[in-house]
Amino acid sequence: MTRTEYPWLLPSALADPLVQELPGDRGRERPRRTVRDWIVDTVAFLFALLIGALVAEASEEAGSPETLLLADLAAGLLACCSVWLRRRWPVGLAGTLIVVSLIMPAAGGAMLVSLFSLAVHRPFRPVAGLGSLAVLAAAAQPFVRPDPTTSTLTNVIAGVLLVLTVLGWGMLVRSRRQLVVALRERADRAEAEAGLRAEQAQRLAREAIAREMHDVLAHRLTLLSVHAGALEFRPDAPPAEVARAAGVIRDSAHEALQDLREIIGVLRAPDDGEEGHRPQPTLATLDALVAESRQAGMRVVLDNAIAEPAAVPASTGRTVYRIAQEGLTNARKHAPGAEVTVTVRGGPGEGLTVHVRNPAPGGPVTGVPGSGQGLIGLTERATLAGGGLEHGRTEDGGFALRSWLPWPS
């Protein structure tokens, strides 16, 4: 359920349960009856008919005149048929049946059904007004049509209690429906907010990647500019030196283009102070990350099968480092004391696989807040690098993080 389906459901209505409208409150705007509506209306009709028949039988046993008895039966039958209109005109129908039941007791069952429908489909003020009128009518009815078989006081108390019970039941049903509507609205808002937070996390991850690429490209383009300037100012340099400078320029331009292809479509946010000028990690610095985690008290097992980390493309190495860093951070927060295993496999042409896993924590864990945005950012980073990332719980209750990244041959 959303506001598009029920445009009258506004936050102000949710804040005040006395004025909140529910689906079906506006009878003329109500959609067609469902199967459930037909069943409920049929049960209500049969209930009103049963009460009317019992009251008519009691009137006959009390010796009521035949003409009055026939009139009572006709009024009761019409009142029972009018129950089918209770969803469209609950206020008018309830007011009419209250007056009719004061004179014709056989309409009492239909009057009770209309009061229940009124309490369900209308706010407190009209229910309180007509409910007070119904209580007065229930108290006055034994005096208008006395029953010689029972005392007047008993009839008054029974009638008033019956009216109050029906009104209370209807208001309870309405309150429960209001609660359901409010909870659904709150769930819709929470879902929308979660979607916005996920989009924001993806945008921040893209911006962080763009900042990293900016630093790397700036370094390579600066190197390219230096060697090109040397060739410009030393046209008489030895051929070997010219060839070496040209090779550096070519390699730097090629690597810069490779990195640039990875961030096509990524918007770069304005530079945030000195954050973008820090040295960028690579696969070769993974050992330092593990050593730092061990110094912090973690038990970490590093299984790195890459013999020459420097041969791994810098962008791929950075992504592996960030994945391992996030995996160690999550394990430190959510599984303190558990042994973490970091596995790196792969080679040129087959790609690079990084796997971070930890078992379930051995003892109680203090609740640490986490939004999951780190994993969203890692997924975005791996996707932009041409790979993919998976994460989730393991069968033993632990957590695993696995990613594959391309490594050109």
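the 2nd protein, sequnce then structure:
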Amino acid sequence: MKSLGKKIRLLRHQNGWSQEDVAKRLDISIPAFSKIETGITDVNLSRLQQIAKLFDMSVVQLLNFNDADEEKKYTTDLEQANKKLQERNNDVIELQKKVIELYEELRKNYAGKN
């Protein structure tokens, strides 16, 4: 069951939910949900159906969910987002340089008139 708990934890992270968020949605305590994620508690079929529905999956999809592939996809998505963020940071730096250049040009023109 530890593998199922890891899958549930990965799905929870992908949705940006805390353990508290999921526990509330399942109408259970946070410690009870934590035990599901860590594999301490076995999940009965009705709870499994409830969890699958929460993640908009069938029970079969949840059980067959390949966490290695999904984690790789999640990591790739994160790397792409970081790359885009770095590109935008570079764009901002270039725009800041242009603003400084224009400011210096205006300052020189103003100083030359006085």
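The chain has a mean pLDDT of 89. The longest helix spans residues 67-113.
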